[in-house]
Amino acid sequence: MIISKDAKELKNKLLGKIIDEGVECKSKYGDTLRCKPAFAVVKNPDYVHELEYDFSGYTICGERYTGRVKESIDDAIQKLKSTPFTRRVSIPIWRAKDHNCDTPPAITEISFIVYKNQLNATTLVRSLDVLNYFTFNFDFVNYVVEQVLDKTGYKKGSIAMLINVPHIYMRDLKRAKDERDEYEEKYGVTEYGTHIVEDYLSSAWHSVLEGVYFEGMVKKTEWGEMFEGQAESKFLHRTFVEVKNPYENQIHDKAPFTRKYGVEYAHDYVICAKSIDKPINEPILKEDETYTYAERARYCEKDVVRVDQLYAVIEKLREDKFRRDCYVGISRPWDLLSDEPPCLRGYQFFALNDETLAGLFYMRSNDAYGAMHANAYAFSLLTQYVAELTGFQNHVYYHFAVDMHIYAEFFDAVKEILQPETPTIHDVIDFKK
Fold first, then answer.
1. Is residue 332 part of a domain?
2. Over pLDDT 90: what percentage of the chain?
3. Which domain holds residue 195?
4. Which of 125, 98, 97, 133 is CA-nearest to residue 109?
5. What residue spans of 276-352 are helical by DSSP H?
6. Residue 57: band (very low, low, confident or very high) from pLDDT cuts 50, 70, 90
7. Band of the pLDDT at 424, cuts 50, 70, 90?
8. Which pTM does this prediction carry?
9. Which of 37, 161, 233, 422 sits a CA distance of 20 to 30 A from 395?
């Protein structure tokens, strides 16, 4: 995680990261230098340039960037005003039909959290030419934040960007070196975000539980009216987890799910695995289901233009393993009207090198105890399948949650995992007799 005081400083630090850590990759637009995902936060955000436009002239796939936001922003503002502690406000920019155009949006999602009367924004960026387009993209996010602030009256907090494929073009290398700055990656829990790197899925889950349980902030939740034990939670704002070896030690011995459940959840709810190698052209929801992650990824009946996004990205990677547009959007504009919108908002597959495929999954909210471990297991399994289908030798896994939390009713269960009590002789013998 890179933390900067302002956006201009962040741009220069990101250039430093790309130059120091990047690998050369082919691209149809020119050879690039690209590095691993960058989790970056601006503490005091403002426009990089004095704003002289409202972004209405900028288009993606024939539509205005601002138009995509306009579909959802009024509902987002209303929910933020009525329920300041909400975790459910996340504006989708990506549409399934964007797979059919050559210039899909770089920004795919903008999520909001209010804490201590400050409005904080987090945005997912699937790919970013940092030298040439960082300023536009950051200023656009800041523009959206300003629109929300104007109608809600909150104070301005931080803006974070999770950039899946940060890169520069080799033709711009000299100019990038002139602008670069030194940078420092911060790990562990900070007030602006949490960055965890672990070898295994099991140890990653354990580290997340430690972070939330011991250092999490307390706030109300929207589930309190239905479940008394979930009226309050401890949470970490923005949790980014890297898992280097998702093949071994996958399931913690105290995990609240079995491997059998994890596989079934992945195959049925996340992937629709029986059809992973062919496009789906018919409804897949069961009668009692409102949505599943597989339905949103592969055949969403409510979409005007239906695209099997998962199959599309597999075909793209088979064609060119270094493509940067292999994104699957789970979120939809109408989610803001739902009391149970999808926690998973989208995911992307991208090459780290010739042999390694990365899968990055972005969630607006994640129950660290009850769901995160099973989510990560299933999402990593999907990444493994995609790697195997597209000619990669292995994969790595990235997990991000805007709000990572533990409900109050699970505090004791988590404590038993983190601080198990060892019995003493006094628990066996009553010496007072």
1. yes
2. 89
3. 2-418
4. 125
5. 293-298, 309-319
6. confident
7. confident
8. 0.96
9. 161
433 domain residue, yes or no? no
Radius of gyration over alpha carbons of the chain, in Å?
A: 22
Q: Which of 94, 109, 201 is nearest to 162 (CA)?
A: 109
Residue type at 209 in one-letter notation: L
Supply φ then ψ for residue 106, to 5 degrees: -75, -45
Under the banding of pLDDT at 50, 70 and 90, the label for residue 62 is confident
Give the strand pairing for 166-169 and 107-115: unpaired
Distance CA 289, CA 283 (A): 12
> Which amino acid type is present at position 213?
Y
Helix (H) or strand (E) holding 155: strand 155-163
Residues 192 and 14: their CA atoms lie apart, in Å, by 17
Is 376's pLDDT higher than 90? Answer: yes
In this structure, the strands spanning 155-163 and 128-129 are unpaired
Whether residue 424 lies inside any domain: the answer is: no
CB 106 within 8 A of CB 128: yes
CA distance 186 to 179: 22
Length of the chain: 433
Backbone φ and ψ of 184, nearest 5°: -135, 125
Say which amino acid occupies 220. Answer: K
Amino acid at position 130, single letter: V
For 337-348, give the secondary structure using H, E and C. Answer: HCCCCCCEEEEE
Closest listed residue to residue 307, CA positions, set 317, 319, 298: 298
Specify which residues 198 forms β-bridges with. 243
Residue 53's pLDDT band (cuts 50, 70, 90): low
Distance of CA 58 to the CA centre of its chain: 25
Task: Give domain status of residue 427, yes or no.
Answer: no
C-beta of residue 379 within 8 angstroms of C-beta of residue 267? no
174: helix, strand or coil: helix
Domain count, the chain: 1
Report the distance separating Cα 135 and Cα 357, nearest Å. Answer: 28
Task: Answer positive or negative: Cα dihedral of 132, 138, 141, 142.
Answer: negative
Q: Region 301-311: what's the mean pLDDT?
A: 97
Query: Token pair 């970056």 is at which residue?
Result: 40
Rounded Cα gap, residues 253 and 243, in angstroms? 18
Q: What is the layout of strands, in order, in the sheet containing 166-169?
A: 23-25, 32-34, 166-169, 128-129
CA 411 – CA 340 distance, rounded (Å): 23
Q: Residue 430 pLDDT more than 80?
A: no
Burial status of residue 258 (CB atoms within 10 A of its CB: 0-12, 13-18, 19 or more): exposed
pLDDT in tens, 136-174: 999 999 999 999 999 999 999 999 999 999 999 999 999
